[in-house]
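The instructor's notes for this session suggest beginning with a concrete chain rather than abstract definitions. Hand out the sequence below and ask the class to guess, before any prediction is shown, which regions might be ordered.
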Amino acid sequence: MPENTEYNHQTVRSENKLYNYLKLHNLARENLMRAENSDRVKAAMENRGSSRAQLFRVNDIVAYFRNCTKSHQAWQGPANAIGIDKNIIIVKHGQRTVNANIRDARKFLKDDDKRNAW
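After discussion, reveal the predicted structure:
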């Protein structure tokens, strides 16, 4: 019987060690996940993609990209933004009113006149 009692004490000790190890391991994993998630949330909040429509205001001077011909693709402008609706910017270019995708528009740069001379 004494051998059996000693065996049981060793078993209990090793089970306690294993239990403590697993408990610490799970605690460390939970803390790591908490830290990663909070870092992800912070990064996501800081880098939240603002809509490109928020970059433009009515009466802004903009350039918009157009495929004039198959061989000539260029930024057109200057044009006056007269309206913005979700993904579409409406611009007045000379006497024409043009709808352009918001991804194909940008603020007009001073160098744009030189680049588009053709």
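Then share the key points. The domain at 52-115 is CATH 2.30.30.10 (SH3 type barrels.). Residues 47 and 80 are 29 Å apart (CA to CA).
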